[in-house]
Amino acid sequence: MSVISKSRFSDQRVRQLAQAYAANRPLVQRGLTVGFVFYVLTAAYRGIFARPSPRRRDEGKDAARKDGKSARVAVDAVFYQRLSIILRIVIPSLRSKEALLLFMHSSLLVFRTAISLYVAALDGKIVASLVRGQSLQFLLNIIRWLLVAIPATWTNSWLSYVQNKLALAYRTRLTKEVLKQYLGDEADGPDGKVYYKISNLDDRIKNPDQMITHDIQRFSTHLAAIYANLAKPVLDVILYNYQLSQNVGAEGLVLLTVLVQTSAALLRALTPSFGTYTAQSAALAGSLRHTHSRLSEFAEEIAFFGGEETEKRLIEQEYAALVQHEEGVMNKKWWYGCAEEGIVKWLWGSFGLVVCAIPVFFKLPGLSNFDLGSRTEGFVTNRRLLLSSSDAIGRVMYSYKDLAELAGYTSRVSLLLDTMSDMKKGRFEKALVSGATEGENGRILRSRGQVLLSDDIQFDNVPIVTPNGDILLKSLTFNVKPGEHLLIVGPNGAGKSSLFRILGGLWPVYGGIVRKPHASDFMLIPQRPYLSLGTLRDQVIYPHSQQDMGARGVTDADLVAVLERVQMESIVEREGGWDVTREWRDALSGGDKQKIAWARLFYHRPKYAILDEATSLVPPDMEGTMMEQATALGITLLTVSHRPSLWKYHSTILQLDGQGGYIFMKLDAEKRLALQEEKQDLEAKLLEM
């Protein structure tokens, strides 16, 4: 009797609990729904802001070292810190065009979700009217279907358009900021010439052109897409599942959530480090592009040496490394895609079918009138909602992969911005020669000198140091006043070009005091002058534009007079006028290039001209004429040349011995020429003996 009594009591207790649950089910449903929304938001936050495993952090460091910067590439706090800095560039304010486009994008995403909910319900009504044989209702539902297609197609097209506009706006804003720093006109002091310093004084970036053109474009595209890939799926999961809970009950929703999250944890554990792979791919692609650009830049030298096979081998090595990496990534994406589709599409689909069947096999409180048409309508609607919800959950899962790829491009863009910032602050990271950080050499490299503005050029105990830490002269002192032409001689590697780079503000000063005019008061004429893209006029007035030339009151007739100074006035007629455009570095001979460079000097008339073997390809009589005309225009010459014919045009000489020593003194050209002739006679007699 006691066992039977206990059994009856248990059955009665269960019935009471079931009745209490049925009576309070609406409140329980609301609690479960609110809990589900909170859980989805929390899970999405944790998934997006998940910290990487130690293994992935190490992989990120390896990927970054490929381009010279030791930093992890993963979806972690470092990534979000970098991204926040870049976001302040691409979205400068809430009133900016980018913020407006982002608001439009968000509104369209919400509107598209609302349309999807309506279409899901309409789909069920169409099938239900078909099952019930209600022809008029079926026709009305078809008309509604066609009408809703108008805003649906409009919304989808606008979403794609606005997202592309947003990507282009991001790229434009970021490119302008990068070019502002990269090519900024800040020649006074250590803040300018970033484009030069990043390639010559630092080892972190080997291919800034690839970063500016390709990586910024890929970053902008991913950034514009990531918002839709994150916000829209989370919103869809909440709305679709809320509507689903109203149809099948929140109990089924909770069961579905448990099953989905369990399988999602498995899928996340299998997710490779896509951020690291993206950064590695970008670095390898940039290295391959850099190797190809060297082939174009030094094509003449390679052709003379017959180095085709060597260059082919180098390019094939770079390409093989890229292909090997991409094949490895493809293999990982293949098996990950299999696991992803199996779990997201098929396993979650079976879970969904079970949930959709709950109202058919179980009578739930509050759900009645389940005839065949109602069951069909409910199943089709729930099935449509479930597919949309499953797709949204899948996209939330995919978003981590998208974020990882965005992290890869973010690390590349951040590396570019950080390196340019360091260049402006005079912070360089370059491989140094052996012993550069030890003893006196280390003390010199750790110190900094002063650069003061002055009409004269004065070096006071200034060391001449190359970017890799090689100290050419520990202390250099000399003084040049306006009008005192300086001749600089010495063997290769003695520091002649290094001295000019300090004068031009290209290299830092590691000690002493440098007094010199502003960098804009100097003009360089190298042995192989630079000729820009543009017209013949542009070659003479570079870097001025035609508008700048007009603002100075200079006409084409004045430019002809400038060309007459270098005996090249016939080139205007020969080439077809001032406005003709050619690849001038190929169209002109070496001597003509040097004459154009001298014409450019006479056009600008700077205070000082740096001549680095600038007359090596012109006749001696033309050489003397150009020197005399530069003097007549008040241009002080700083000349590197081994041609004795130039000695008479200079008043001082700085002679470097290549061993860390130097002599600075007045230049007596006649005496020096006599000594030179005597030296040559003695050498000739020694040869005879």
TrEMBL record:
<dbReference type="Pfam" id="PF00005">
    <property type="entry name" value="ABC_tran"/>
</dbReference>
<dbReference type="InterPro" id="IPR003439">
    <property type="entry name" value="ABC_transporter-like_ATP-bd"/>
</dbReference>
<keyword id="KW-1133">Transmembrane helix</keyword>
<dbReference type="Pfam" id="PF06472">
    <property type="entry name" value="ABC_membrane_2"/>
</dbReference>
<dbReference type="InterPro" id="IPR017871">
    <property type="entry name" value="ABC_transporter-like_CS"/>
</dbReference>
<dbReference type="InterPro" id="IPR036640">
    <property type="entry name" value="ABC1_TM_sf"/>
</dbReference>
<feature type="transmembrane region" description="Helical">
    <location>
        <begin position="343"/>
        <end position="362"/>
    </location>
</feature>
<dbReference type="GO" id="GO:0016887">
    <property type="term" value="F:ATP hydrolysis activity"/>
</dbReference>
<protein>
    <recommendedName>
        <fullName>ABC transporter domain-containing protein</fullName>
    </recommendedName>
</protein>
<keyword id="KW-0812">Transmembrane</keyword>
<dbReference type="GO" id="GO:0042760">
    <property type="term" value="P:very long-chain fatty acid catabolic process"/>
</dbReference>
<feature type="domain" description="ABC transporter">
    <location>
        <begin position="457"/>
        <end position="684"/>
    </location>
</feature>
<dbReference type="GO" id="GO:0006635">
    <property type="term" value="P:fatty acid beta-oxidation"/>
</dbReference>
<dbReference type="InterPro" id="IPR003593">
    <property type="entry name" value="AAA+_ATPase"/>
</dbReference>
<dbReference type="GO" id="GO:0005324">
    <property type="term" value="F:long-chain fatty acid transmembrane transporter activity"/>
</dbReference>
<keyword id="KW-0472">Membrane</keyword>
<dbReference type="InterPro" id="IPR027417">
    <property type="entry name" value="P-loop_NTPase"/>
</dbReference>
<dbReference type="GO" id="GO:0140359">
    <property type="term" value="F:ABC-type transporter activity"/>
</dbReference>
<dbReference type="GO" id="GO:0005778">
    <property type="term" value="C:peroxisomal membrane"/>
</dbReference>
<feature type="transmembrane region" description="Helical">
    <location>
        <begin position="27"/>
        <end position="48"/>
    </location>
</feature>
<dbReference type="GO" id="GO:0015910">
    <property type="term" value="P:long-chain fatty acid import into peroxisome"/>
</dbReference>
<keyword id="KW-0067">ATP-binding</keyword>
<keyword id="KW-0547">Nucleotide-binding</keyword>
<dbReference type="GO" id="GO:0007031">
    <property type="term" value="P:peroxisome organization"/>
</dbReference>
<keyword id="KW-0813">Transport</keyword>
<feature type="transmembrane region" description="Helical">
    <location>
        <begin position="99"/>
        <end position="122"/>
    </location>
</feature>
<feature type="transmembrane region" description="Helical">
    <location>
        <begin position="142"/>
        <end position="162"/>
    </location>
</feature>
<dbReference type="InterPro" id="IPR050835">
    <property type="entry name" value="ABC_transporter_sub-D"/>
</dbReference>
<comment type="similarity">
    <text>Belongs to the ABC transporter superfamily. ABCD family. Peroxisomal fatty acyl CoA transporter (TC 3.A.1.203) subfamily.</text>
</comment>
<dbReference type="InterPro" id="IPR011527">
    <property type="entry name" value="ABC1_TM_dom"/>
</dbReference>
<dbReference type="GO" id="GO:0005524">
    <property type="term" value="F:ATP binding"/>
</dbReference>
